[in-house]
Amino acid sequence: MSLSPPPGDRLDQLLDDLETASKIPAKRRQTSIKPTVEKTTSLLYDRGALPDDLIRLVDLLTQHNHLDQASLSAITRNLYPLGKVSDEVLLRIVGALGHGHLKPSFPLQSLFLKWLVMVYHLLQNPTILSQTYAVLFNLLDSAAIRPQLCHLLALITRRKHVRPFRIQTILALSRQTGGDPNLTGLLRVFKNYYPEIIVGDITKGRAAAFKHPDVQWRERLNEIQQQHFDRHEDDGTRNGFAVSHALGRRLKGARALIPNVHTLHAHETSVTLEEFDSAEGFVNSLEKIEMPSQLVAVLADPLLQKFLLLRPSQEASQRISNWLMACVGDVASGDTDPSFLLDMVEVIRDYVLSTKELSPVLMEFLQSFLQTWNGLDKRDIVLETLSYLPLLDFTELSPLFTLLQSKLLNNTPQSQLALLTFYTLLLNNWTTRLLSRPASSLPSQPVTSIPSLLTHVNPLCLTLSQSSPSVSTSLAILDFYTATGRIYSSPILLLHIPIAIPPPLLVYNLAFSPSLTVLSRLCSILTVYKIAWETVITKKTSPQQQQRKPSQEEWSQINIFNGFLMDICNNLWRGRAFALAPTSDPGSPDANARGCRIPKSLVPVLDSYLRDLDDDLKLETVFGLSYNPVLCLQSIKFVRGLEEKEMKKGGLLVRHAGPVTQQSLVRLTGRGGVRLSWQEYRAGVLGWLEGEEVGQGGLPELMYNTMKNLMGARRGTEGGGGSSFSSLA
Question: Is the distance from CB of 220 to CB of 45 less than 8 angstroms?
Answer without folding.
Answer: yes
